[in-house]
Amino acid sequence: MNSTLRVTIVLLLLVELSACGYHLVGTTSFLPEDIETLYVENFKNQTKWVDMDQRLMEAMTLEWVRRRRLRLVDSADQADVVLSGVIQRLAVIPVSYDDQGRANEYQMSLQAMVQLTDVRGDEPDVLWEDKAFSRRTSYGVDPRAVDYFDRQNLAMDVLSKEFSSALVTAVLEGF
């Protein structure tokens, strides 16, 4: 195959790939350009973990501010869109054990129903929804350690941040 043919094939492939809609995560948005403001409701917490909603709210707020696509407002009345949700499940299960049968690694998973609603018109319009958005993280513990429960709290913070980052990406990109 001569070099001219190779160059032609490579150029055709590049043109084809550039027209496919591929893009880097976080560099695009499926939301209409005229949507500028967002109100994030505190998610309802249906779990026994009393402060998970607060951890999640803090992480989501920071993630939206970091992304800079929408300006956060203080009330739904000031917003173009409202993000709401219900924390349905927060589970912690042991995934690894030591020689004596004590758990030394846990997996924490978080699941929520999440909805983004355009509230500008007479009737609210759901722009994005996931009835079971979830993320999980693992963390190791030493059953004899004094910071056993601190590790769980740290895992809740990590999970809140990972959940929020993935959620904001999903909302912006329409996944």
Report strand %.
Answer: 25-35%
Q: Which stretches are low in confidence, meaning pLDDT under 50 for 5 or more residues running?
A: 19-27
Instruction: Determine the CATH superfamily.
Output: Lipoprotein like domain
Query: What sequence of helices (H) and strands (E) makes up the elements?
Result: HEEHEEEEH
Looking at the structure, the CATH topology is Double Stranded RNA Binding Domain
Structural class: alpha/beta
Give the overall form.
flat
Gross CATH architecture: 2-Layer Sandwich
Profile the largest sheet: 6 strands, mixed
How many angstroms does the end-to-end distance come to? 42 Å
What does this structure look like?
- There is one protein chain.
- With 175 residues, the chain is of the alpha/beta class.
- The chain has one domain (26-173): Lipoprotein like domain (Double Stranded RNA Binding Domain, 2-Layer Sandwich).
- The protein is built from three helices and six strands.
- The chain has helices at residues 3-18, 52-67, 148-173, and strands at 37-40, 44-45, 71-72, 81-97, 103-118, 125-140.
- Strands 1, 2, 3, 4, 5 and 6 form a six-stranded mixed sheet that branches.
- Strand 5 (103-118) and strand 6 form a beta hairpin.
- Helix 2 (52-67) packs across helix 3 (148-173).
- It is flat.
- The two termini are 42 Å apart.
What attributes does this structure have?
3 helices, 175 residues, Double Stranded RNA Binding Domain, alpha/beta, single chain, six-stranded mixed sheet
